[in-house]
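Lecture notes, continued. The same structure-token format from the folding unit now serves as the input rather than the output. Read the line below as a description of shape only.
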């Protein structure tokens, strides 16, 4: 994230913390401790899913990709999405009764899956998560910042 003075901050949890400092209202973190833990749990889970997707992309670019490695990453992705669907259930928001970090994490991860791992039809497997994702994607903040795939041309060895 490029700041007004031209400097930058990076890494999603640092960016969220920065946004909370600069724009404390409405808060991105819930006020109750159990809800804070739930929101951070979703953030970490979604980060892990996205990390496994990135590792999958790079492994696929290798001259001789490891099927064992790809299977391991796929299990992480599928298990993570299954857990997100379980945690979300049929709630209108990821955590508590308000839009929060949990919603951002889940919306970002599902959007990234659509862009980078489109063959994984998580929407068919988890209709409750698909409905949640559709609601999040309809928010102006998500609708105007939809992820797109970049072209990676650097060789992976």
């Amino acid at each position: 994230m490029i700041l007004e003075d031209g400097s930058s901050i990076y890494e999603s949890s640092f960016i969220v913390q920065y946004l909370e400092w600069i724009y404390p209202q409405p808060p991105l973190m819930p006020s109750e401790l159990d809800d804070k833990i739930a929101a951070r749990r979703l953030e970490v889970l979604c980060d892990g899913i996205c990390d496994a997707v990135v590792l999958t992309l790079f492994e696929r670019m290798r001259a001789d990709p490891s099927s064992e490695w790809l299977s391991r990453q796929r299990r992480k992705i599928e298990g993570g999405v299954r857990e997100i669907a379980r945690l979300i259930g049929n709630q209108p928001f990821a955590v508590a009764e308000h839009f929060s970090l949990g919603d951002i994490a889940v919306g970002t991860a599902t959007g990234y899956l659509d862009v980078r791992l489109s063959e994984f039809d998580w929407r068919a497997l988890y209709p409750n998560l698909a409905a949640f994702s559709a609601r999040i994607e309809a928010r102006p903040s998500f609708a105007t910042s939809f992820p797109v795939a970049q072209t990676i041309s650097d060789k992976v060895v």
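Point for the exam: The mean pLDDT is 92.
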